[in-house]
Amino acid sequence: MSHLDPLPPLRDVIATHGLSAKKSLGQNFLLDLNLTAKIARQAGDLTNCDVLEIGPGPGGLTRGLLASGARKVLAIEKDARCLPALQEIAEVYSNRLEILSGDALEIDPLQHLTPPIRVAANLPYNVGTELLIRWLTPAQWPPYWESLTLMFQREVAERIVAQPGGKAYGRLSVLAQWRTDARIVLSLPPGAFTPPPKVASTVVHVTALPAPRWPADPEILSRVVATAFNQRRKMLRAALKGLAPDIEDRLTAAGIKPTERAEQVSIEAFCALARSFKL
Fold it and tell me: Is the same domain home to 87 and 142?
């Protein structure tokens, strides 16, 4: 991958700029440019897309996205130490890389992006799940993004794609699969990173559907699902009793046995239950 631009290998970039990964920022740098290029390819054809990248660090994935032909990359980086390295990339890819210094949880990227928009990131571990939930629960659907290509700890990735009946199935599974197609596309061992994390990492590709798979009010569905999984060991008639005095009747009407637990309930059935609260 490094032959595609005149920039030095990432190990040299890190050494030049003194970029030791900070645990407080959830940083684990991926230094193999062949791997970052492979992740970029999982995002699909980027030639007519703007790409949002969160936490680019020294810019390995950034370089992969630009080399893959992204129309523009908007990189949001909280660690000011990384900005000089990213600026060096911007100088090579003139007018195609915009760098914003700040916290991705506090920045609205839309004023810097032009549709179609895709998101691709090796997300910092400490904010990855929160960012994903924000992207999955916008005020309006379809969202501003067409797809998300994101790296998570393997446990989080497995929760995103989990099916009913297993321990990994939960609120994140429902939120993701209700109105997206989500699939695991790549797994990376701890040794691919500096420093190596304690767990394996997995890339998930999420494609927005034009409409939810089944009708439901997003806020009601989110509340019902959160309540159900907050007490996942309890039968639903007990876990959800605070939502309505006639919860057993509502569960039965939705095709759910009141004695079932949350992990046994399909997304379609959760949507049917959520609709009962609109009556």
Answer: yes
Measured CA to CA in angstroms, residue 103 lies from 100, 144, 152 at distances of 9, 19, 18
Please list the helix, strand and coil fractions of the chain in percent, rounded to the nearest 5, in that order.
Answer: 40, 20, 40
Number of domains, the chain: 2
Between vectors from CA 100 to CA 44 and to CA 94, what angle results, nearest 5°?
65
213 within some domain: no
φ, ψ at 63 (rounded to 5°) = -65, -40
pTM: 0.93
* C-alpha of 22 from chain center: 21
Q: How far apart are CA 215 and CA 212, in angstroms?
A: 6
pLDDT digits (tens, 9 = 90+) for 167-224: 999 999 999 999 999 999 999 988 888 878 888 999 999 999 999 999 999 999 999 9
Question: Is the separation of the CB atoms in 22 and 53 below 8 Å?
Answer: no
- Tell me, yes or no, whether 188 and 254 share the same domain: no
